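User: Need the bound-state model for pyridoxal-5'-phosphate:
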Amino acid sequence: MGGNEANYVQNAFDTNWIAPLGPHVDGFEVQLQEYLKIGHAAALSSGTSALHLALILAGIGQGDLVLCSSFTFSASANPIVYQGAIPVFIDSEEKTWNMDPDLAEQAIQTLSSNGQMPKALILVHLYGMPSQMDRFEEIARKYNITIIEDAAEALGSHWNGKMMGTFGAMGVLSFNGNKIITTSGGGALVSKNGEWIAKARFLATQARDSAPHYQHSQIGYNYRLSNVLAGIGRGQMEVLPDRIVNRRANFSYYHKALSDLAGIEFHKEPENYFSNRWLTCLTVDPQKSGGITREDIRLALEKENIESRPLWKPMHLQPIFRDYPCWVNGVSEKLFDQGLCLPSGSNLSAADLQRVVFMIRSLWQQS
Ligand SMILES: *Cc1c(COP(=O)(O)O)cnc(C)c1O
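Assistant: Bound-state model below.
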């Protein structure tokens, strides 16, 4: 927490705004709009609920095809199945680790020539790294496909100076406890299209028609953010720029201290791409490292009570998604096999970072 969050929460208590609406919800939405430079934002109970509403607004229903990054967290794909639609998983490219635009185009062409044109595409900016937006904007235009950006990990990241989440028809943010800023649990849906965001608020509050009694003509959801939690969000928005500085400093430190080790490669930031560096990620190629694997690093750190984690396991390898269609090229499987997220919290001390580096370097010294 930055410091002001508790004041906003206290204010919610003092004014008795303990509900999934109120001045903090409104204020938090305005902060998000101003920060992202986008017209409209709806504060919701999670990133997952934001994705679900985005699919509903895009008209996704039973049997529709939705392209989705395979290299991601399962929450990117679950809402496709909530809608009875079919996820089509697309592998990554090596430059950004995000969805491969060539493979996405191949999938669209093959599927549409079989009369199964995908209706939407969920594009994830993983670990804060922007996707190849020039290519995806072209794909959206060329095939008239709705792009929903899953920017849950990429708040504050930008491509060519424009914020992630503001390129697609809709953008999704998460304020879950593990994200760069948090409301403990929360999310948002953002868009240039005010009608969609108004509709998202309507659906998120049980789709209540305007009548003095309770009347419903549609299925609704209970997906709004609490005013108490939005108070935390208002305080967190004040420190978001500092958080990005801290996360990027973690990356720079690790990069300087480790990139000379044989076989280690860091997640690169191409020119004009700005990542919030939510997590610092690297890969270890045992063919070049003298046999040292990412698992060797993970276990050596674990012995010192330092947690690190493998990169996301691709969706096309997950037991629950294994039988869905996918276009794969081996990139995400290799990243899963060789990749590691290092400790990346915004509050790591210099001593913490030094300890991690020391443990990793000592593996190379032994070999
Ligand atoms: C965290 C996350 C989500 C889901 O957000 P919640 O707020 O936890 O529901 C979706 N996609 C990605 C890539 C995430 O990392």
